[in-house]
Design goal:
The structure is a single chain. The chain is of the alpha/beta class. It has two domains: 141 residues, Rossmann fold; 119 residues, Rossmann fold. It contains twelve helices and ten strands. Strands 3-2-1-4-5 form a five-stranded parallel beta sheet, with helices on both faces. Helix 5 runs antiparallel to helix 6. The termini are far apart.
């Protein structure tokens, strides 16, 4: 009886070992990323050593800059990409739609994601983790994100909302509207996005409307603080009068990665300071 039990345990151990080995072998070993956020997430999932190609915008973490650059999301060097012999190409479906068919014609597996909010970022991490054989790490990251978000939001004042304008670009004037993760971050931080009623997530916005809605805080993501402060038409805006114009790292606010929570933490800090 003991011998049978021992044989069964040995068989079970061998079966588990073979299953794990098979899963590891099936996981893609040569991955090309077509977006900075995806590159960052691949490294966060522990797959940085399997990334063989990135875009010219992929600068975080620092190790990403040692990878072969295959162009950017809009203009890919397909010949170079193919020379890397990837077994998986990962892209943002909003950016690589025009490339998907071409890549698939060459027999390359393409995986796409397109999160639009913090919950979507967590879900995309889970899906990406499954796609590259890093499911356990993905679950850990998603859980860490959810916990940190709860802790950050718990610290937010329930006092009146602070009117916020986030300038994505200055010429033409662009901002973040409903359905964008920046709009979500503003709300979670206790602010009110003055572009909350725009007709799309990344709208053009009129200067007249900014002046009319009089933001108390202006957030700049294009490294143009000096130019913004010099706008003659904006001198009556509360944010300029009170010195509440802030220049931030655009990568924190524009990349759908766990670092979006760094942006949330910064936004909470800015609005808390304004309330004092």
């Amino acid at each position: 009886m003991k011998r049978k039990r021992l044989s069964f345990l040995l068989y079970l151990t061998l079966a588990v070992f073979l299953a794990v080995g098979s899963a590891a072998a099936a996981a893609p070993q040569r991955i090309v990323s077509l977006a900075p956020s995806i590159t960052e997430n691949l490294f966060a999932l522990g797959a940085g050593d399997r990334v063989v190609g990135v875009t010219s915008w992929c600068d975080y973490p620092a190790e990403a800059q040692t990878k072969t650059v295959i162009g950017d999301a809009m203009n890919l060097n397909l010949e170079l990409l193919l020379s890397l012999e990837p077994d998986l190409v990962v892209g943002d479906s909003n950016l690589v739609a025009s490339h998907i068919e071409s890549l698939q014609e060459f027999g390359i597996e393409v995986f796409v994601i397109a999160p639009t909010d913090l919950a979507g970022v967590r879900q995309s991490l889970l899906e990406l983790g499954d796609a590259i054989g890093a499911s356990e790490r993905a679950r850990e990251l998603a859980a860490e994100m959810e916990q940190r978000q709860r802790e950050l939001v718990a610290s937010v004042s329930t006092a009146e909302k602070i009117r916020v304008f986030v300038e994505i670009w200055n010429e033409p004037l662009m901002t973040a509207g409903p359905g964008s993760f920046i709009d979500e971050i503003i709300g979670l931080a206790g602010g009110e996005n003055i572009a909350h009623d725009a007709d799309n997530p990344w709208p053009m916005f009129s200067e007249e409307l900014v002046i009319e809605r009089d933001p108390q805080v202006v957030i700049l993501t294009a490294f143009n603080l000096e130019e913004a402060l010099a706008r003659s038409a904006w001198q009556g805006i509360t944010a300029l009068q009170r010195g509440q114009v802030f220049e931030v790292d655009p990568n924190l606010y524009s990349r759908t990665t766990p670092r979006l929570l760094d942006a949330l933490e910064e936004m909470i800090s800015i609005l808390a300071e304004v309330r004092k």
